[in-house]
Design a protein that fits this description.
Strand order of the largest sheet: 5-4-3-6-7-8-9
Radius of gyration: 17 Å
Distance between the termini: 54 Å
Shape: globular
Bound molecules: S-adenosyl-L-homocysteine
Structural class: alpha/beta
Largest sheet: 7 strands, mixed
CATH class: Alpha Beta
Strand content: 25-35%
Number of helices: 6
CATH topology: Rossmann fold
Helix content: 25-40%
């Protein structure tokens, strides 16, 4: 008889993942602690669980992906959060980035446009008992005016421009992080600081995200237009 496969301790794998994040330049202790706490393997499909703690993006269904841990950690760090902040996330996907922000003590308003992901992720967040995440299904490029202004806005899909409604819904002193690029799936990560003097823009380097689709994003085409679409 073959030996049963060894039981892998997810917490040990997460510690190893976090050590690699430190080597790659993630220094914010609160972000590293959140990455130790949140069970990433529960946010990926069962078939991908053994790879959940490798530094790779993975499919989450509907042609979408959960970002690689390094990018989630980097964006969380560059967002400069502190506990109690109100954050808008556009592109809930698996819910992992939202769970990291919630573990940082923030109140997260997160928007997903695809029905299937909205349903599966809201069920998962309920099962995990995470309370400080409020999820909505709609076009996130229009923001969430009824809950604005936000201290921070994070967009986890890439569009051709910075959606104006998001700039309007950002509080003064706030930070907006968004992948922007004139070609789909090839963007620069842009950070905007809204100050009394105006908007300060920084380029944080190249990133690869799935498309931001909506009124202020790319138009839905091909396999994006079907019954999973926002109706
Ligand atoms: N933050 C996610 C990453 C998901 S991938 C995670 O941690 O897993 C990006 C997601 O953005 C996809 O689920 C896609 O459906 C969604 N999306 C794309 N355009 C959107 C829009 N206009 N409004 C809301 N969600 C959008």
């Amino acid at each position: 008889m073959r030996n049963p496969s060894p039981v892998i301790d997810p917490k040990r794998l997460r510690r190893r993942m976090v050590n690699e994040l430190k080597v790659r330049g993630i220094t914010d202790p609160a972000v590293l602690q959140a990455m130790v706490e949140v069970p990433r393997h529960l946010f990926v499909q069962e078939a991908w669980r053994t790879q959940a703690y490798e530094d790779a993006s993975l499919p989450i269904g509907c042609n979408q992906t959960i970002s690689q841990p390094f990018i989630v950690a980097l964006m969380s760090q560059e967002l400069e959060t502190s506990p109690g902040m109100r954050i808008l996330e556009v592109g809930t996907g698996s819910g992992y980035q939202a769970a990291i922000l919630a573990a940082l003590g923030c109140t997260v308003f997160t928007i997903e446009r695809l029905r299937e992901l909205y349903q599966s992720t809201s069920m998962l967040l309920r099962q995990l008992g995470i309370r400080n995440i409020h999820m909505q299904r709609r076009d996130g490029t229009l923001g969430l005016p009824e809950a604005a202004p936000f201290d921070r806005i994070i967009v986890t899909a890439g569009g051709p421009e910075i959606p104006r409604p998001l700039l309007e819904q950002l509080d003064t002193g706030g930070i907006l992080l968004i992948p922007v690029g004139d070609k789909p799936r090839l963007q620069r990560l842009v950070r905007i600081r809204k100050t009394f003097q105006g908007m300060l823009k920084e380029d944080l380097g190249p990133v690869v995200f799935v498309d931001l689709i909506g009124d202020h994003g790319w138009q839905a085409t091909g396999c994006n237009v079907h019954n999973k679409e926002l109706s």
